[in-house]
Amino acid sequence: xxxxxxxxxxLAFPLAGTIINALLYRTGRTSRLTGYVGTAALALSFxxxxxxxxxxxxxxxxxxxxxxxxxxxxxxxxxxxRMAILVDPLSVLMLLVVTGVSMLIHLYSVAYMGxxxxxxxxxxxxxxxVFSMLLLxxxxxxxxxxxxxxxxxxxxxLLISFWYRRQTATRAxxxxxxxxxxxxxxxxxxTFFILRHTGTLDFLGTFAQAQELGAQHQADxxxxxxxxxxxxxxxxxxxPLHTWLPDAxxxxxxxxxxxxxxxxxxxxxxxxxxxxxxxxxxxxAANVGAIVGVVTLLVAATIGLVVTDLKRIIAYSxxxxxxxxxxxxxxxxxxxxxxxxxxxxxxxxxxxMAAGSVIxxxxxxxxxxxxxxxxxxxxxxxxCFVIGGLALAGIPPFxxxxxKDEILLVQAQIxxxxxxxxxxxxxxxxxxxxxxxxxxxxAFWGEPNEQARELEHGHLWHAPQPTNPATxxxxxxxxxxxxxEHHIAEREGPMKLAMGTLAFLATIGGIVLIPKxxxxxxxxxxxxxxxxxxxxxxxxxxLWLGLALGAALGLAGIFIAYKIWATGDxxxxxxxxxxxxxxxxxxxxxxxxxxxxxxxxxxxxxWFGRFAQQTFERIVVNGVFVGGSTGVVRAGSAAxxxxxxxxxxxxxxxxxxxxxxxxxxxxxxx
Amino acid sequence: xxxxxxLCLSALVFSLxxxxxxxxxxxxxxxxxxxxxxxxxxxxxxxxxxxxxNGDGQVFAIIVMVVAACEVAIGLGLVVAIFRRRLPVDVxxxxxxxx
Amino acid sequence: MSLPLSIPLWLPVAAAFAGLLxxxxxxxxxxxxxxxxxxxxxxxxxxxxxxxxxxxxxxTDELWISQLGIHYKLGIDGLNLFLIALTAFLWLICAIxxxxxxxxxxxxxxxxxxxxxxxESAVLGALMAQDLALFILFFDLMLIPFLFIGGxxxxxxxxxxxxxxxxxYTLVGSLLMLAAAIATGVMAADQSGGALSFALSDLRQNVLxxxxxxxxxxxxxxxxxxxxxxxxxxxxxxxxxxTIPLPALAVFSGVLSKVAAYGFLRIxxxxxxxxxxxxxxxxxxxxxxxxxxxxAMAFTTxxxxxxxxxxxxxxxxxxxxxxFALNGDGAQGxxxxxxxxxxxxxxxxxxxxxxxxxxxGSEDLRDMGGIAFxxxxxxxxxxxxxxxxLAMPGSANFAGEFLILLGAFQHSIAIAAIASxxxxxxxxYALRFFVRAVQNRVGPEVASRELSLTEGLxxxxxxxxxxxxxxxxxxxxxxxxxxxxxxVQPAAALIDAPPATEASAK
Lengths: 670, 99, 506
Prior knowledge:
Radius of gyration of chain B: 17 Å
Largest sheet of chain C: 2 strands, antiparallel
Order of helices and strands of chain C: HHEEHHHHHHHHHHHHHHHHHH
Strand content of chain B: under 5%
Radius of gyration of chain C: 22 Å
Mean pLDDT of chain C: 87
Order of helices and strands of chain B: HHH
Distance between the termini of chain B: 50 Å
Helix content of chain B: over 70%
Structural class of chain B: mainly alpha
Largest interface: A-C, 65 and 65 residues
Number of helices of chain B: 3
Number of strands of chain C: 2
Strand content of chain C: under 5%
Low-confidence stretches of chain B: none
Shape of chain B: elongated
Oligomer: heterotrimer
Mean pLDDT of chain B: 89
Distance between the termini of chain C: 39 Å
Largest sheet of chain B: none
Structural class of chain C: mainly alpha
Helix content of chain C: over 70%
Strand order of the largest sheet of chain C: 1-2
């Protein structure tokens, strides 16, 4: 089978799954049929991704970029958008990661979402999301890319507001949608800047002209790429377009794992890697990407230190890790960026799944302040959380260790101001270790709380009355979601299987690119990045320095977290908070981004809407225009009406005068 | 005899009729005055017909007479209807149709 | 071989007239039959359309009033082909929709269908007309049935004043247009020294001097902008939308506004290229104002009809933006967007009717909510309509908007950037409508009911058409390309003429 056929099939199965699940929406609440249908669709898709991978490897390295066209989508005027996919090592890598991780998350959801009355809908959405994501990574032109990009947004919005009776959920959904539409606009306008000089929307056609673009239309290229970056930042939750991601945690936990950790949010990274021939022609645009990435990774890490919502901590951690990736691909470290994307997908999905299990054990409660001592009650979840935490903190030999160091090594190699990126990157890595292990020590160590004690006795705790964890509002039980039942990994085979597999991958994922040992990933991605002009060869000294520094900082972070929260009861943290009250306030309020955006954009827009509604419409539109023109017509008709006096003799007189005037006129004429 | 005299007479009668229409308020008198105006027109038509020596004008005059007869029939009918309904016999009072 | 255009043009009203004379349900059946046959014909016309012909096809040309040089001239080309099909489609569906209701007793009921069908013939006439006077005749005729429909079947109390306002306001525009049209014909005849003729092909031969083009342009623009409606001439819209019953409103909003936008391309830009270039910036700025203002109004009002009304104002802003980008991409996007917007706004009104039926008859957003759980099919169809309304990439509306923005971008980067704010605002009002109408808590008097079979009969074909064009927009784009590009050619040439400003994309 040719790689493109396999890729088309991989794309088709999730779509088929969506349709089947949508048609099966009437299945009863206890049936897990739709869940297995969804998972099977993904398994098939993953299988074909592997087929595509193998068949691509069977070809010459020069022929590993294949375009396959289905039909003309919109070929007219100055655009040439075809329904076509581009299969090359980069897209196949994404294909593998997306379908593989998605399959596991589907499997996890089969059990985790059990009892929720939106079960079939959930799997239809989830399948649709995977279809969209695959469309995004396989797209061979800008239009198809934007389509996949927006479909992903739509799927994400639907899943964030999955429990749509909660106003917090729908509001978070709309927020994420609107910010991501801003990103779409960025990509569309960016495309226009590039299209104007290349005359084609096709990626390969555009890349072929990259050099010429860079030489002759530097300004337009830079503008276009910065606009593309706006799209990447919106989707990948980079500052200042990140505010939707923490709110997106309103969605069910598997959604957070799938969309807001493993796949969708990395689309921005993929976009930059895909556009690398263009970015290499514009240093300015590349630098913008690197700087935003480094700012995000630091800011998100600082917020992660103080947030108390379990899922939001992981969400901020995601933002921070994607900051690393964006920084990597913007500075030419494509393979390192994609490597981190892959390992991050493993360990972050794992962390979310474990967090979901804990949240279930808490009866839906997400606040870290209330969690304590789950270590004995949930050994499996605890184990998974620790593995994920070690990988995230970058402790050897876990996967995160290799990928993060690879990125920072490139910064050291480039030198110059990139040393700042290097230092900030390691500083954030240190913070990452602290906040990750703060979570683990606070949730799992110490005296077991009520829920943990009950669980040790074999009872899963349930809240007497379901409430929205965000507002405390009583849930609308009319529709039965979120489901009344909770599911934890210890009791559900599918969850265990999914988490076990991811834990394994998170542990050994680094194997594909161990310095001085393996270069598998490098070799595989070679054909895509072959024409890259940025080549980095690290010196041994920097390599060992980086590896040692990364391991040491990670361990130091864990040690500090241990000292404060595992043995010190967190009193040291409270003390620190009092000493640095200003900084703490800044972090807790998430650097005031929501407020700033509210002041700058939301309020003026709603003020404008109110002004238009209440004042302008009434006075100008209805007053001046409608009132004016109907007024003139009415005044005119009133004047004419006044002539209709009803006096017969007046009419006769007018008739005579008129006739006389006409005669007089003709007399004078002659 | 010159055409001028006929025309002068016609103009005189027409003016008399017009003055009557404008000044009198009794519908019967108004109808009478209208008749005067029409016949003034007829006189002029017949005079022109004689001047040119063909019958076109006379044909017109006959048509005008027919129209006048119709008009009188309808007009008198209206006056009778006004009497029957005991409405004022005064064109200034009959102004229901004002705008 | 092809059918004379007069047959599909007059068929709907002829069928409804015959129905008027027959008893009982026959009126409905005949009205629907007439609309259905016209729709079948339009499909066949699409299939039969010859891309290679650069000009009108299937022309009917009779000299109608010889003294005035008015021709009864009809024809099809890439510009109106799909608009005709859209008209036929929407009328068919809305006739079926209207047939589900009783519109009064006896003759009153039958009369509705007669007016409804008369409007279809008038719209088809305006789209097919290739003579300026004939166009104006049909253009004004198409409003009259809606005045009666609104005035007779609108809500008690406000219907007559609202319709009177609508009538006077649009009539002022029409009068200006009539004056401008007569001036065009007379001046063109003077200039050429030939006989008076209002046929568009003859008028195109004699381009008027620049000075007279300008005022004629303004008069036409006033008429079209009122009818669309565009900011700031949309004052009649809220009352008009509140008054016209929903099945008629769906076609009114879906098609009538497009005829005005179509008029810009068919008449104004091609007959008055100098003036179009002269007033290009004015029109673009008006379009931007429409987009922003319409969107802002749409996300603050709670009346569902007005959300759609103001969103139409915004969408028509995009269409005008495309027309007055004065290049092939923009014009093509504009024509395509007219079709898309018609296909989107009509099902949206259907949804409004269904939602109101479930919310105790109230069409206010505050009284709705929470039905998605028990009416998943309705919610899913509504979701598709919502995404199409906000022109999500992947919908045909996106393809249209992409071309429009590209056209605007080729003219001015700033205008394209400001217009794209409208895309963001569209997502705000469309999602707000969706979320508050079917999600969140159940409204006070809401009774959740799933879509019934007969309800589905109306909504499903509309949504199906949206999906079809989303998957294969090329069908419409491909056929229209040659003619549409040609219609803006004179104006585009004028822009490019002064020392080649910027090399085009190629």
